[in-house]
Write a structure and sequence with these properties.
It is globular, with a radius of gyration of 24 Å. Strand 30 and strand 31 form a beta hairpin. The chain has 548 residues and is mainly β. Strands 24, 25, 26, 27, 28, 29, 30 and 31 form an eight-stranded antiparallel beta sheet that branches. The chain is built from two helices and 41 strands. The N and C termini lie far apart (65 Å).
Length: 548
């Protein structure tokens, strides 16, 4: 079904329909719970402030004007978890370089499904949670309801599970806090098509909204289509500014400033209209007002041959060190055969590095495999001009799943683009692995409807990873401990963690660990990379002091 919506700054907007009255009542109950949480938090602050006044009046002596009296911090509970799940991939129709895109059907075999998991605390029920439409009003699926009579066993944890729910538009995962902590929850959207121009596999975590994010590995050359999708799940309008960096420097043009994204809406921007013929661009997304989510739908078509699909997710913030996990490399001989075709140079795996500052970057790349550091011709050192994006091809890297560590003398943003597919004139799929953050406690990897491998690396020191499988019945299975030696990558098939799993709970100890989930199709070249989601988020500790 084709869609056409006009929007400011050349963006396309889509808006969901009003909710039925019954669902509106559900929304009202959720809003009341959140209002009570906000009121309780405000009460904590008021009481803490009052305590500060009393404490100050008790300890202040004559002649101490201007003295500050510190009091204990006030604990503010965590808020509800909200994560936006992207809409299905769709073909562009009409002028693909324009900024008012129309979308057309994909293929008969294309399917987009959503899987989710929400984990309880020890001895507690699963937090109230559900899948909603983007406006937060219409409920698609209940994960866990409020049950005052629930009596979980002491110390026992369980999960609410949704497996492979078919979706056709943007959706939102919503979960109430688990005590003082934000709920441990995650959801994954998986697109798969065995035919058509969008043949391949693409997967993405549902994303918490933010005000500042980077996306690397965007391609807008001939045959490549990249659509930036901005979603605002909040109740406040968002104004978005974009900075686009390409191979020849920062891309200047119209349509990058003041993009209005109303509450509950998604705007789509065709990147070729902002930065045409870029083999690798990086996009910096910043919003004011309401927070937004951002990802890029990437697809490639060379003549009649599909060149792959991917959902490009935000990378780690710009910094002098970037770690990219889950870099899946196929047999280099097969890749060279595919890449030798006209227009298929994108099939060669490459590290992409963006330098947003005003100083050239001297970049050093290390590739960590199961046996340690892999050799790179030239030593992996190269220079990227300020304000541009550079690439380091890896054409001879042996088959396997690796971690890439990028270090530079200035802040950079990086990712790795690779491919899967070994036959000439046959479909190829692409995978774009973004840089990720250090893992900590309680990361929840939801398993999509495909083969999945969890990949971990400890670049600088020995570490341990604790893996707990969560079954489709919501029960937690026996924990496994995986050792990761310094400077190596360890790959764990999800099927080896347990049987009949819907998700895997991940925690780490020791030195810094980074990780990702690599998804491959059971048949065909389909491949995608999922960064592991953030771990547990607690409430805020607000120091309260009195100055007079």
């Amino acid at each position: 079904m084709s869609r056409k919506d006009s929007g400011s700054n050349g963006a396309k907007a889509s808006k969901v329909q009003p909710a039925p009255s019954g669902r509106a009542e559900s929304r009202s109950r959720r809003q009341k719970r959140r209002q009570r949480a906000a009121t309780a938090a405000a009460g904590v602050l008021v009481l803490a402030a009052a305590a500060a006044v009393v404490a100050g009046s008790q300890v202040v002596e004559a002649g101490t004007a201007g003295r500050t009296v510190d009091v204990a911090a006030a604990e503010v509970p965590a808020g509800p978890l909200t994560a936006v799940c992207p809409e299905p991939l769709r073909l562009l129709s009409g002028d693909v370089a324009g900024t008012d895109p129309q979308f057309s059907p994909v293929s008969a075999s294309a399917r987009t499904s959503l899987s989710a998991a929400v984990l309880s605390g020890p001895g507690n029920p699963v937090p109230v949670s559900s899948l909603l439409r983007a406006d937060g009003a219409t409920e698609l699926k209940t994960i866990a309801e409020d049950d005052p009579d629930a009596a979980p066993l002491a110390g026992v944890r369980s999960a609410g599970i949704v497996s492979h729910l078919d979706v056709s538009d943007v959706s939102v995962l919503s979960a109430e806090p688990a005590g003082t902590l934000q709920a441990t929850a995650n959801a994954v959207v998986t697109f798969a098509a065995a035919d058509g121009d969008l043949s391949g596999v693409a997967a993405a975590n549902c994303q918490a909204p933010g005000n500042d994010m980077w996306i690397a590995g965007v391609r807008t050359t001939v045959g490549a289509t990249a659509v930036l999708r901005l979603t605002n799940p909040s109740e406040s309008a968002a104004t978005v500014d974009l900075e686009v960096f390409g191979s020849k420097g920062r891309v200047e043009g119209t349509g990058t400033r003041g993009i209005l994204v109303p509450p509950g809406e998604t705007k789509s921007i065709v990147m070729a209209g902002l930065a045409a013929n870029e083999p690798s661009a990086a996009v910096h997304v910043r919003s004011s007002g309401g927070p937004v989510t951002a990802l890029v739908q990437q697809s490639i078509l060379r003549g009649l041959t599909p060149g792959g699909v991917e959902l490009l997710q935000p990378a780690a913030a710009a910094s002098p060190q970037q770690v990219i996990s889950g870099v899946r490399i196929q047999d280099p001989a097969a890749t060279k055969k595919v890449a030798a075709q006209r227009g298929f140079e994108f099939a060669t795996p490459a590290v992409h590095v963006a330098v947003p500052g005003s100083t050239n970057a001297v970049v050093s790349v290390k590739v960590l495999g199961p046996e340690g550091e892999a050799a790179i011709p030239g030593g992996g050192v190269f220079t990227v001009p300020a304000g541009s994006v550079g690439q380091l091809p890896l054409p001879d890297l042996a088959e396997g799943t690796y971690t890439v560590e990028v270090t530079a003398d200035v802040s950079v943003v990086s990712g790795v683009v690779s491919s899967r597919g070994s036959e000439v004139d046959a479909p190829v799929d692409i995978a774009v692995a973004p840089s990720g953050e250090r893992l900590g406690s309680e990361h929840l990897a939801v398993l999509p409807n495909a083969n999945s491998v969890l990949s971990f690396a400890a670049p600088s020191g020995d570490a341990e990873v604790r893996l707990t499988g969560i079954g489709k019945d919501g029960a937690l299975q026996e924990e496994q401990v995986v050792s990761v030696a310094a400077g190596t990558t360890v790959n764990v098939p999800a099927a080896g963690v347990g049987s009949g799993l819907a998700a895997v709970l991940i925690s780490t100890t020791g030195d810094a660990v980074y990780g990702a989930q690599v998804v491959t199709a059971a048949a065909g070249p389909g491949v995608s990379v999922l960064p592991l989601p953030k771990g547990n988020v607690g409430g805020l500790s607000v120091p309260v002091a009195l100055g007079y």
